[in-house]
Amino acid sequence: MSTIDFDSIQIGDTLPPLTLAPVDRKTLALFAGASGDHNAIHIDTDYARRAGVPDVFAHGMLSMAWLGRLLTSWVEQRQLRAFGVRFVGITQLGHVVTCTGKVTEKFEADGERRVRLEVQAVNQYGEPRVLGDAVIAL
Residues with Cβ < 8 Å from 17, sequence gap 6 or more? Predict the structure, then answer.
């Protein structure tokens, strides 16, 4: 992890993207165990089909976790001041998710120099799955 300098950051700068392996059943099972979210729509194909979807799909919070990983690959976790998302699409099995971030604002608050970022997780077709923002102290 490199040291990020407030003065050298410009609005419009981007974070190095994070591209994940294709979503598979093992990933969903591991995330269900780690998060405690065992909702059947994410792990039981028969249940998912009865619910009217063709198969299980990823937890929205898994994509949020990946966005958190994007942020903490850029700065230390202790620098994170705010992080929120909106779930805008379903991440299906086989989707390759790429997380990106862009600096949208530089400001000072509570005696700290901070940046605001737009973050997003998109699938391999460029379709947004999760949109959000974060505030980082630099």
Answer: 70, 98, 99, 100
Q: Domain count of the chain? A: 1
The phi and psi torsions of 113 (rounded to 5 degrees) equal: -90, 130
Q: How far is Cα 93 from Cα 27, in angstroms, rounded to an integer?
A: 10
CATH number for the domain spanning 71: value is 3.10.129.10
Q: What is the pLDDT of residues 94-115, one digit of tens each?
A: 999 999 999 999 999 999 999 9
Q: What is the rounded CA–CA span in Å between residue 15 and residue 17?
A: 6
- CA 13 remoteness from chain centre: 18
Q: Is residue 35 part of a domain?
A: no
* Residue 111 domain flag: yes
3-state secondary structure of 33: helix
Is 127 part of a structural domain of the chain? Answer: yes
Whether pTM > 0.85 for this model: the answer is yes
Q: Tell how far CA 58 is from the center of its chain.
A: 12
